[in-house]
Amino acid sequence: MYFPPLDIPLSLSANFGELRPNHFHMGIDYRTNGREGLNIHAIEDGFVSRVKISPFGYGKVVYIDHPNGITSVYAHCSKFLGKLDSIVSLQQIKEQNFEIDFKPDSNLIPIKKGEIFALTGNTGNSSGPHLHFELRDTKTELALNPLVNGFDVYDTIPPTIQGIKIYALNKDVYRWPNKSKIANVVRNKNLYSILNNKLTLTSDYCSDGGIGFSLEAEDHINGYTHDFSYFGSILLVNNDTVFIHENDEISFDGSKFINTHEDMDEYRKSKRKFQKSFKTNENYLESYSTSKKGIIPIQPKDSLHVQYFVYDTHNNQSELSFDLKVLPGNPNKNVFNITNCILPNSKFTYQDSLSTIEIPEGCVYEPVSTNFQAKTNITIGSNGTAIQLPIQVKLKIRNSELPLEKYFIKVGGNNKYLETTYEDGWLIAQSKYLGTFSIDIDTIAPVFVASNFNQNDSIIKKSILTWKISEEKTQLKDYDLFIDNEWQLLEYESKGSYLYFNKPKDLKGLHKIKLIVKDACENARIWEKDIWFE
User: Whole-angstrom Cα distance, residue 212 to residue 263?
Assistant: First the structure.
């Protein structure tokens, strides 16, 4: 039996497999009653295999490898304790960087079951104090559902079903444009049906592919007022199992396949979360345990009996059952139009004297209109389109009046900075987005102002010094604090953009302070002052 990671009663705020922007939730979130600084315990004997500190993502996170082949992960920590804290601090000093990704030797930081090694917090991309907790297979790094791997919760309530959506599909499992419909459901205890128990489709839903379903449902757990993601679903048509989906494990490479597992178009339009019960050719998610892809061939005048079973980790189950009737008429014999499209199963390359776009095979999930324009800027697709793999963008600098490092590539309409390199007069960037790409210039250094003391003061009594940072065009690249020419650990909190310096207790008297903050285009702002610390 695992040791609980917290001293307080374990209470979930999010479960495994929840639908998030561009990824699945890969662990469970435990409430900390809105507080930081609670003790975090190791769930089992092991050793610290990785520590990562970042202003983003998991913030301060610890990975512990255990003898049973499981790695436990504890994210958004506020502080490390004991030997772990000492070794991490030494590594930060060695690298002269707050942000580190450190993988210590297996014998460096042993951990005992129940040992307290860190405190809970709100670091990284966290919307409030909590503990994000994961279990992973150490060898494969698959994220495992903690609720079926030793961290069970009491649950006697079955999921609820809100609706289904039906799509016309072509032979390559692409959705026909404007050929889908939503059907809401009616409930009788744990049994659900379509109104009047019958759903009709026009004959133009019949094509060389078939139809596919998606499901809108949510889970409920005893004692909780908010909803969770359901664990699994089974789709049967005429008593034949055509699709099974279970959230038992997800690979980190596979997490972005949420963009094809979930109907993202519907979510952007209505905020309703439909999870597909059919698999596109470009979806390699591990959560499907049937060889069938969920594609249901139909012809005019067909009658089908459809059943959905939706369940949680305790197999509390709800059933949706209805009949589907295809009306008489002519089937859809149109040719699926892929003209001027980026295709999932092929590369796309554009090149001229001033720009190059390279889109790899497997980048998109279904055909995407190129929406291509190559003028002053270059446009490919649209900024709201989700992609699986990054694309490469190369833009030529026409008149380099400034040093090359002052130029960068941005993608609109949010004018997002892309990390840019330089090669023979070309700017090169990898982009996780489609959209409009252009060259911009940044010659202005980041701005920072003291937020908890007066920057003009010569005497400071504060134990923590805080600066508010703003960088308009690109992003922070480096931030360093020197006291009497000796590097000091400076922490960066991305939420609100603050720098923190925890003054050592023995730092007293007159000292020379130098703060340097630099952005991605090598613009640096420096603040120097002689300060008397009390």
Answer: 12
